[in-house]
Each structure stands twice: as structure tokens, then as C-alpha cells.
Design goal:
- With 390 residues, the chain is of the alpha+beta class.
- It has two domains: 5-70 and 96-177 and 268-346, FAD/NAD(P)-binding domain (3-Layer(bba) Sandwich); 180-267 and 351-385, D-Amino Acid Oxidase, Chain A, domain 2.
- Helices cover 37% and strands 28% of the residues.
- It contains eleven helices and 20 strands.
- An eight-stranded mixed sheet has the order 6-5-14-15-16-13-17-20, sandwiched between helices. The protein has a six-stranded mixed sheet with strand order 8-2-1-12-19-18, covered by helices on one side. It has a three-stranded antiparallel sheet with strand order 3-7-4.
- The longest helix has 28 residues, at 322-349.
- It is globular.
- The protein starts with a strand and ends in a 5-residue tail after the last helix.
- Bound molecules: arabino-flavin-adenine dinucleotide and P-hydroxybenzoic acid (PHB).
- The site of arabino-flavin-adenine dinucleotide has 32 residues, from helix 1 and helix 8.
Length: 390
């Protein structure tokens, strides 16, 4: 088999890139080790930046998004029993849309066949060869049969544990990392959200987030220790903790109900540089991870592949490699700004084990300052709705 662009991974990065290649008429093949159901079943991101919404519109994939997505012009911060709203639309002219990653993946997969997007599911034992030459290839096994996919370029959209980044020599790759001393315990429940917008809560006992997937389906998170286990958290304990951390005002009218999904995700900040090695390009979680506090993870994956697709289109149109040569620096410039915002917002809202009384007072003082400052709220708003691609 031969193609122009071999895409490893059918998550948001891989599938958005595949659709962008199909629209540009550039031959590409997606190699995914799992099944469609498995990929679509992963409960992850919930908030789309304005740029991600725009890309779905440009790709003509926004019909359900427009019908079922929830535009949010503001978001809320709760602390010390108080709550205040940041009017993002008034401050930036932009908004975000609440629409789960599972729904995005369903839209991308549903449109793949009709648009000629080639996806090989359950592709196993992938190996990347010839990355620093002119004839890279991807070896893999499917149903026990060995295959080799010859290509011009390999886009590693294979997430944090993928094969792409691991194919870059240690003396070439530079890694930056911060592992947080806590995780997020999240649930899904068929109950109406406590607020029509999101609430990020800072409490002495730890962080909590009230989010949603629809007017009847809520997504809540509480910060938990790295040693905690799901079986230690009954629904009742979870709801008690959410109400305590949101505080009486923010949790007024909160509707409890049985969770049908419960999981714990670790938090880390991670960046691998460069995002290119010869004919290999990294995109999405393959190159970077952010704590979900800033709702940046999936949106960064989308902005990476928007830049990569532009560079590939320039190359195939004019044999102009300038976009490809500039991809890593351009993508990283935006990645680091999202890393900073996610790290800062996590520091503002979470309880760190080594925090002393002074550090706690600094958090509360910063929240009180933000509450009264249009300038401080504008900084949060422009980062949250999504910084421009350029
Ligand atoms: P993904 O990990 O989504 O996709 C990579 C794909 O590559 C997978 O389908 C995998 O099966 C495949 N793959 C890996 N190795 C392979 C190999 N060797 N061969 C073939 N295929 C291979 N982001 C937010 O914005 N908000 C959130 O609340 C949020 N919560 C999260 C919770 C969890 C538990 C995790 C893990 C992430 C969360 N994220 C969140 C971040 C998440 O949304 C990612 O940013 C997003 O999925 C990134 O998309 P991709 O880069 O496509 O990587
Ligand atoms: C979610 O709804 O899953 C969600 C929303 C905002 C975040 C993180 C997760 O910052």
C-alpha cells in the first residue's frame, strides 16, 4: 500500500487531520489500534473553543453541533461560598460551546466513509521506518496479516502513549513535564446541570467543577489524591463533596442522581520538542498534555492539525516545504501559551498538599482580585475561548 500521509491514531487529532486531507484532495490513511466503538466510548473533553467550532463549520461537520451544542458566553468561579461570572462574550466577543468529545468523534466517524476518509481499525504492532529519509513507511498487522504502508509523511496523532514520539531519538527530543499531586474524579449522571454554565470551584478541601453534556446530562469533577480509588467513592460521598466544594450559593438546587460513568484521570503538564523529526510530525497529545482545568486538551489537538494540514497543502500544491519546516515552531508557540494558562488556572483553583496558610490566602486574594477586575477577567476570557492560530 502507498499513500501521501500516514496518520497514526483516530482520536480528534487524527480524524480532523484526515478530514482536512480529504478536503484538500491529499491521499491519507488512518491507522488506529482500537475499534471505533472504543475510541468513541472514551469520555473526555467537554468544551470546544471558538476555533474548533469554526473548523467543524468549515468541514461541514457542524449540523449536530449546531442542534445539540450548548453555546456558553460566560463561565463561573466559586470560592469561599461565593460565586461570580466572567462574561467572556462581553470581554472578547467570543464564546465556547459545550459538546462532548464523544459527540465530536461520532460526527467525524460518521462523515468519514461518505468523504472517502480511509481508516484501518485494529491495526496492531505499528512500527515507523525511514523517518529521516525520503521514503518513510509504517509496518503494522491487521487480522494477523503483516502490512507495510509506504508514504511521504507520517503524522503521529497517537496520543500520550503512542509510537510516534517514541520514534524520535532521545538525543533529539527535549521533554518538559510537571506531574500534579492529585487527579480528577469525574462522573456522568442523567440529572440537569446545577447551572446553565460551568462552575470552577476553589475550596479548602479541593477543586470541583460543575459541567454538563446537555440540559439533562451533567458532568461533575472533584479533585482527589493520587492514592484514591473509584471504589472508595460512593455516589453519596461524591455528591456531598461536590456540594461542599461548590458552596451553598453555587450548589443551590443541585439535583443528585445515580452516576453511570465514574473515572479518575491523572493531571500533568507535558511538552515534547520538536514536534517534527524528518518526515514525522507530532500532533495533539502525542506532543503535549495539559491539565483539563483550562479545557485545552482536545482544542490544542485541533489547532495542531489545522496548522499541519495547511503546511501539507502548501507542500503538495507548490512543493513549498516552508510550512512543514515552520510547523513545529508555530505549533509550539500556541501550545506553550495553552500550557501556561492551564498550569496557572490549575494553581489558582486546586489545593496542593504542600500549601501553607499564606499560599491559601494568596489563592483567595487572587480570586477576589479577579472578581473585581475587568482586566484580569479579560485575560481569563481570551485564553478560555481560545487564542488565535497566528
Ligand atoms: P487521543 O489520545 O485522543 O487519540 C490517540 C489515538 O491514537 C487513540 O485512539 C489511540 O488508540 C491511538 N493510538 C495510540 N497508539 C497507537 C498505535 N501504536 N497504533 C495505532 N493507534 C494508536 N481534554 C479536555 O479538553 N477536557 C477534558 O476534560 C479532558 N479530559 C480527559 C480525560 C482523560 C482520562 C484523558 C486521557 C484526556 C482528557 N482530555 C481532556 C484530553 C483529551 O481530550 C485529549 O486532549 C484528546 O483526546 C487529544 O486527542 P489526540 O491527540 O487525538 O489523542
Ligand atoms: C468537561 O465537561 O468534561 C470539562 C469541562 C471543562 C473543563 C474540563 C472538563 O475545563
Amino acid at each position: 500500500m502507498r499513500t501521501k500521509v500516514a496518520i497514526i491514531g483516530a482520536g480528534p487529532a487524527g480524524l480532523f487531520l484526515a478530514h482536512l486531507m480529504a478536503r484538500a484532495g491529499i491521499d491519507a490513511v488512518v491507522l488506529e489500534r482500537r475499534t471505533r466503538d472504543y475510541v468513541e466510548g472514551r469520555v473526555r473533553a467537554g468544551v470546544l473553543e471558538q476555533g474548533t467550532v469554526a473548523l467543524m463549520e468549515q468541514l461541514g461537520l457542524d449540523a449536530r453541533l449546531k442542534a445539540e451544542g450548548l453555546p456558553h458566553t460566560g463561565t463561573n468561579l466559586a470560592y469561599d461560598g461565593e460565586i461570580f461570572r466572567i462574561d467572556m462574550a462581553a470581554l472578547t466577543g467570543a464564546a465556547v460551546t459545550v459538546y462532548g468529545q464523544q459527540e465530536v468523534m461520532r460526527d467525524l466517524f460518521d462523515a468519514a466513509g461518505p468523504r472517502g476518509v480511509q481508516i484501518v481499525f485494529e491495526a496492531e504492532d505499528l512500527r515507523l521506518d525511514g523517518l529521516t529519509g525520503n521514503s518513510p513507511s509504517v509496518a503494522y498487522r491487521k487480522d494477523g496479516v503483516a502490512h507495510t504502508l509506504a508514504c511521504d509523511f507520517v503524522a503521529a496523532c497517537d496520543g500520550f502513549h503512542g509510537v510516534g514520539r517514541a520514534s524520535i531519538p532521545d538525543d533529539v527530543l527535549k521533554v518538559y513535564e510537571r506531574v500534579y499531586p492529585f487527579g480528577w474524579l469525574g462522573i456522568l449522571a442523567e440529572v440537569p446541570p446545577v447551572n446553565h454554565e460551568l462552575i470552577y470551584a476553589n475550596h479548602a478541601r479541593g477543586f470541583a467543577l460543575a459541567s454538563m453534556r446537555s440540559p439533562t446530562r451533567s458532568r461533575y469533577y472533584v479533585q482527589v489524591g493520587l492514592d484514591e480509588r473509584i471504589e472508595d467513592w460512593s455516589d453519596e460521598r461524591f455528591w456531598d463533596e461536590v456540594e461542599t466544594r461548590l458552596g451553598p450559593t453555587a450548589s443551590a438546587g443541585l439535583v443528585r442522581g445515580p452516576s453511570f460513568e465514574k473515572s479518575i484521570a491523572p493531571l500533568r503538564s507535558f511538552v515534547a520538542e520538536p514536534m517534527r523529526h524528518g518526515r514525522l510530525f507530532l500532533a495533539g497529545d502525542a506532543a503535549h498534555i495539559v491539565p483539563p482545568t483550562g479545557a485545552k486538551g482536545m482544542n490544542l489537538a485541533v489547532s495542531d492539525v489545522a496548522m499541519l494540514a495547511e503546511a501539507l497543502a502548501l507542500f503538495y500544491a507548490d512543493r513549498d516545504a516552508s510550512g512543514l519546516d515552520g510547523y513545529s515552531a508555530r505549533a509550539l508557540a500556541r501550545v506553550w501559551k495553552a500550557e501556561r494558562f492551564s498550569w496557572w488556572f490549575t494553581g489558582l483553583t486546586h489545593r496542593f498538599p504542600d500549601m501553607d496558610a499564606f499560599a491559601r490566602r494568596m489563592q483567595v486574594a487572587e480570586l477576589a482580585y479577579i472578581r473585581g477586575s475587568r482586566a484580569a477577567q479579560t485575560v481569563i476570557a481570551e485564553n478560555y475561548v481560545g487564542l488565535p492560530l497566528r
